[in-house]
Every structure is written in C-alpha cells, then in structure tokens.
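Retry 2 of 3 after timeout on previous attempt. Resubmitting structure tokens to design endpoint.
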C-alpha cells in the first residue's frame, strides 16, 4: 500500500465500499426524500429564507410542543445555541412557540451540541434543542433535537413533527403557558462532564496544546477543559462576534491550527467546528489526522487496555485502509449511510461502542450518547498519555488509500439511474479494482450533483477509474 501522510497540502478525497457489497456500488438511499424540512441533521438553511425564518421557527416550536404533550402533560425542553448572530432571533422564536404550546423552556446560551445532549439527559428533561448550522458559515443556521436520553431522534419522530406543522395551532390558555428561565451554570456542568471522561489517574501536564474553537459554541468550554486537566493551552478561534463562526478557523479550516501549532511549538492542536461535535487533530510535525484515523486510534487504545471491541461503524465514505486495519485486529467493520445519526443507529442496533466519519464526527457510546469533539479529543490524548507513544505511532502500518471524488452536475429532470452507459462502465472498472479498490456513486442530498468516488491502492488507478465513470455519466442517452 502507498503511504499517504495526511497533511494540509494534500487533497485526499473520499469514496467507500460496504462490507457486504461488491467492489462497485451505487448508493440510492442517502436522505429520505419524503421529509420536507428535516435533513440528515435536523433542519438547516440560509437565515431569512424558508425554512429558517422566525415565523416558521415559531410554528416549529409549537408543533414540537404538540408532539411532546401527547406523551408528557408538562414537558420541559432545553435550548442551546452556537454563536451566530441569528441565534438570538431563532431562540426567541422557538421559546415563544414552545410557550404557546404549554412547554417550559430552559436556556443555556452558547453551548456545544453534545453539551445540550448531556444536560438534557442529566436534568431529566423532555427534549434538547440546538440552534446551529455546525460547520456552515454564519449566514446559515439550523435546528436539531435530542431525546430525553440525549440521543438523536429517529425519522418517525421527525415525521410526526412535520405532520403537526400542517395542523392548525392549538394555543393553550394564559394560565397554561410555558415559562422560561436561563441555566447559569450550564457551561460549568458540561466542563465537568467532559473532564470525567478522561482517565481519573491521568493528566495532560507537560503537553502544550493549541485549541481552536472555530469562534463557535465551544469558545469558552474547550480551553477550560484541557487547561483544567493540566495542559498548557493556547487558544485560537475563541473570539466570536456573531459573524465569524468557522471563518478561516476550526475543523473545516485546519490550516490555522497547523500554523499555530508550529508558531507556538505545541505538541498537538485540537480543532472543533461551530457546534463542537466535529474534531481534527494535528501533531507537532504538521501531520493532520482525520476522523477515519482517529477512529482507528480509539479502537486500538481499547484493545490495548484489554477491552473487547467486537466491531466499529464507519460510513460509506470511510477509507478502506482503516477497514482493513481494523479487520486485521479482529474487529468487525460495517458501513452506515453518510451522517452521524446513521452511525449512531448502527451502533445501537449492534450493541457496539465506537464509530465515526472521516470528517471528524466520532462517537464513543461508552463516554457519551452522541458525537462530541472535546470528548473525542480527550480519548485520543488519553491513548497518547497512557502509552507514552506519539499519535503518529498509533497509525504505523495504516496507509490511507488515495481517494478521488468528482462531482457531476445533473441537468433538470435527469434520471441518472436510467443511464445505460453507467452499468457498463462499472463492469469495466470492477476487475481493475478487485481486491485493491472500491467505487461509490451517490446523489447529493442537497444539490443537483452526482458524486462519483473511487478509491484504490494507486493514485493513478483511482483517477483513471473515476474519469471513466464520469465520462459514462455525462454521455448522452
């Protein structure tokens, strides 16, 4: 296998292969298309454009309240948010919608998404709500929900909410209106929770860390967590102004982290995204570790501690090299659809603990009910501290396969599934990739694009096969 160090100046692009599918595959079920508002991670869009408008969000709060009261006569919900300026407006709209349905509201202010999930469970509340568009720019925003157990809610719950949006409002009388109050110690509670996931007999003393909060929800929490565990912390991306979230910093722009680690002579850099459920790590040599590699480290650390790890869950995008490396260690590996909610569903259904995506969404169900960038970083650093081995050493022998992604824009009304040239092209490349590569063809859930992705042990082979498939997609029929 060709070793590809994952550095900033490389463009490693992703594809995937299901554990039980042939080398060449087509994925046609990325996002349930029957839902009008909910996507793979709640409701998201540009502020001021449907559905991210205050009138719709008020209706949404009312509809969710109606659904909650079917099983809970006196529900209380928790609302957290990131640092976007639009969060004030949407928070007020949600609060009004919930109150109008007789639902009490607790407000946390800026708090990471996994912090909302934790507090919802810890405070025995009915629902957790996060106002965030994650890694998107400030002009976008969104709403996502967590169950009373701090877990992402299933599709059927979202279908109930969409049905309730079509019903006329049922305003409660004045005496039954919901009340709202702010939780003043929300950040402190979450900081203590994060610290508790790190080994009680371990410390980060002696480590210098750069922590990049993406000017987002973790700008106060993340530096405190690592500092209180003993690390020397240099903070970047921790000065939000409502307009700069994810702008040139954070997990989606790791070049800022790489630069800061070099400038400060730090041991490692930790980059989160706007709502702090995504993680990227860089070491002192400027090597960037993606979510696929970090998932392998989490599994390897558990194995080294003598813990049983029957399997791990990735997605259709997980690098084939990680799958092979895990299987060599006796760990089964399965792929879920793209999206951390689908990784979580697969983990729960199999009773497994560890899963994640290359983007940096990592889930350790023995530590938290959802993906958490801070907790995931602590799990990785715990492995480093406990073993005395640099992070790069954990990945010796794990050589990421080169991956090529080409997006093909679809014409209005174009049915790419009916293209007669594509099956022939897939049949042609299949023997070239047998045992050393894979193909994934999937439609974007948000844009009129067909994503053609090929992974192979040799870069030239991956590029050649991808171009053959794209040529078939574009051929007239």
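Retry 2 succeeded. Sequence:
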């Amino acid at each position: 296998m060709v070793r590809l160090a994952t550095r900033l100046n490389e463009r490693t692009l992703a594809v995937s292969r299901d554990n039980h599918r042939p080398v060449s595959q087509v994925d046609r079920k990325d996002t349930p298309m029957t839902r009008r508002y909910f996507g793979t991670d709640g409701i998201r869009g540009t502020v001021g454009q449907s559905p991210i408008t205050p009138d719709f969000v008020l209706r949404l709060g009312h509809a969710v309240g109606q659904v909650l009261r079917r099983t809970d006569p006196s529900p209380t919900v928790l609302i957290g948010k990131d640092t976007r300026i639009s969060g004030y407006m949407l928070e007020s709209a949600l609060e009004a919608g919930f109150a109008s349905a007789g639902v009490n509201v607790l407000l946390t202010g800026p708090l990471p998404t996994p912090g909302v999930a934790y507090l919802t469970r810890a405070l025995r509340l009915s629902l957790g709500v996060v106002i965030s568009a994650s890694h998107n720019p400030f002009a976008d925003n969104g709403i996502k929900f967590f169950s009373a157990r701090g877990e992402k809610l299933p599709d059927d719950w979202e279908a109930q909410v969409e049905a309730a949006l079509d019903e006329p409002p049922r305003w409660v009388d004045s005496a039954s209106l919901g009340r709202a109050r702010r939780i003043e110690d929300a950040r402190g509670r979450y900081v203590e929770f994060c610290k508790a996931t790190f080994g009680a007999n371990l410390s980060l003393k002696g480590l210098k860390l750069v922590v990049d909060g993406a000017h987002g929800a973790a700008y106060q929490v993340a530096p405190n967590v690592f500092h209180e565990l003993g690390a020397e912390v240099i903070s970047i991306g921790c000065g939000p102004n409502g307009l700069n979230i994810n702008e040139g910093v954070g997990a989606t722009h790791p070049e800022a982290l790489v630069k800061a680690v070099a400038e400060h002579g730090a041991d490692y850099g930790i980059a989160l995204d706007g709502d702090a459920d995504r993680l990227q790590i860089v070491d002192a040599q400027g090597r960037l570790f993606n979510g696929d590699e970090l998932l392998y480290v989490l599994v390897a650390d558990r194995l080294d501690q003598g813990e049983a790890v029957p399997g791990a869950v990735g997605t259709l995008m997980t690098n084939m090299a990680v799958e092979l490396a895990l299987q060599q260690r006796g760990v089964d590996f399965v792929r879920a659809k793209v999206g951390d909610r689908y990784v979580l569903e697969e983990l729960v259904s199999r009773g497994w603990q560890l899963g994640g995506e290359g983007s940096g969404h990592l889930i350790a169900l023995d530590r938290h009910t959802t993906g958490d960038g801070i907790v995931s970083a602590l799990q990785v650093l715990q492995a480093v501290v406990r073993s005395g081995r640099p992070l790069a050493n954990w990945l010796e022998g794990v050589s990421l396969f080169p991956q090529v992604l080409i997006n093909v824009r679809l014409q209005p009304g174009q049915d790419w599934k009916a293209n007669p040239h594509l099956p022939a092209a897939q049949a042609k490349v299949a023997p070239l990739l047998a045992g050393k590569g894979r193909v994934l063809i999937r439609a974007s859930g948000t844009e009129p694009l067909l994503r053609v992705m090929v992974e192979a042990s040799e870069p030239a082979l991956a590029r050649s096969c991808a171009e053959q498939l794209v040529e078939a997609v574009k051929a007239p029929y």
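Attempt log closed. The first strand starts at residue 24 and ends at 27.
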